[in-house]
Inverse folding.
């Protein structure tokens, strides 16, 4: 898989609107309701493999007004706290999150969203914390299938009014990082590259852009 100089890309800022839903309509609806203050349940745990979109959803919730939780936060701070990736927490952090979840359960002005890579039962965390994470709603965030990614990329290029060669999008899925933020950012960068050179969006043009981007990265001090 091609390594990209990702600092040369400009991925879209994560939001609920640019999240590609796939099989995750229920979790997206739950987070929208939480952000709108209309959710009955105020504690959510989202889990899924890398690239499934759970980090996108956590960042989108912050864009909608939530705040990023850290172990130093007051457990009783109002609003929606977000922790993206619970598993690296040390003992102190786990105790702090345990206290936050207890506070959320006791006070309707508080809410919490936590993400991880596995279901609560298999997390390598304190038993009491795993229990608290399971108190509220638990959703698996499902990664997009290749067909769903291809459909999403096709929709993205249509939204930009761009024409692409038949084999370009399958080539992207095969040869580049497979998360949607990177793939759409590559398409946007490639579109700008094509416009500047008055060329069509094709696999040879993508290869030329990748080569030029790699050379630019290598020339940096």
């Amino acid at each position: 898989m091609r390594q990209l100089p990702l600092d040369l890309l400009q991925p879209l800022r994560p939001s609920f609107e640019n999240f590609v839903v796939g099989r995750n309509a229920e979790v997206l609806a739950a987070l929208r309701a939480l952000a709108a203050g209309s959710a009955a349940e105020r504690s959510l745990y989202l889990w899924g493999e890398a690239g499934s979109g759970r980090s996108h959803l956590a960042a989108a919730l912050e864009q909608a007004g939530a705040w990023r939780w850290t172990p130093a936060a007051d457990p009783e701070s109002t609003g929606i706290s977000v922790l993206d990736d619970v598993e690296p927490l040390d003992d102190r952090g786990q105790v702090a999150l345990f206290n936050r979840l207890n506070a959320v359960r006791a006070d309707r002005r508080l809410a919490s969203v936590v993400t991880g890579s596995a279901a609560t039962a298999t997390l390598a965390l304190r038993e009491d914390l795993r229990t608290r994470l399971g108190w509220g709603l638990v959703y698996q965030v499902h990664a997009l299938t290749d067909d769903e990614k291809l459909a999403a990329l096709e929709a993205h290029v249509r939204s930009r009014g761009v024409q692409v060669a038949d084999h370009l999008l399958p080539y992207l899925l095969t040869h580049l990082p497979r998360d949607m933020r990177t793939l759409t950012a590559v398409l946007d960068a490639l579109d700008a590259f094509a416009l500047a050179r008055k060329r069509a969006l094709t696999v040879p043009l993508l290869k030329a852009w990748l080569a030029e981007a790699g050379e630019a990265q290598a020339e940096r001090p």
Observations:
- The first helix runs from residue 25 to 36.
- The beta strands are 43-47, 67-68, 79-84, 110-116, 137-140.
